[in-house]
Design goal:
By secondary structure, the protein is α+β, with helices and mostly antiparallel strands. Helix content is 31%, strand content 28%. The longest helix has 16 residues. It is globular, with a radius of gyration of 14 Å.
């Protein structure tokens, strides 16, 4: 099992749970941004040659989500798009849970999104 890091617990549990899924699809961890003084937000960014995906923890609202953007070289060339919205084809209500069921839904959404031939990401 992957070690839990120094970020907010729901974020670190989600990161540990999702990292093997990212790795299975050829992604590597590009960086982690943990809360600094006055901030409660955290990000873990994963990437491969054409796509970046961030795990986001919004600490004020206690929300976890995944968002994706297209990449060309080292540049982001699209807007960040919520992957659960991309799969659904529309905006969805915000999910505030951080329990196992929420992690199951995030993991399922990540696998479904990455299994698409061309994941839908909004243009810049």
């Amino acid at each position: 099992m992957q070690q839990i890091g120094a970020g907010p617990r729901p974020f670190e549990v989600a990161r540990a749970r999702l990292t093997p899924v990212f790795q299975a699809f050829g992604f590597r961890l590009f960086g982690v941004e943990l809360p600094e003084k006055g901030s409660r937000h955290a990000f873990a960014e994963f990437g491969r040659k054409d796509l970046r995906i961030r795990l986001v923890w919004e600490g004020d609202e206690q929300v976890l989500w995944l968002e994706a953007a297209r990449q060309a070289g080292s540049e982001i060339v699209s807007r960040w798009t919520d992957i659960e919205w991309s799969i659904a084809g529309q905006r969805r209500p915000v999910e505030r849970g951080t329990d196992e069921a929420r992690l199951d839904r995030l993991e399922g959404a990540l696998g479904a999104f990455l299994s698409m031939d061309t994941p839908d990401v909004a243009p810049a």
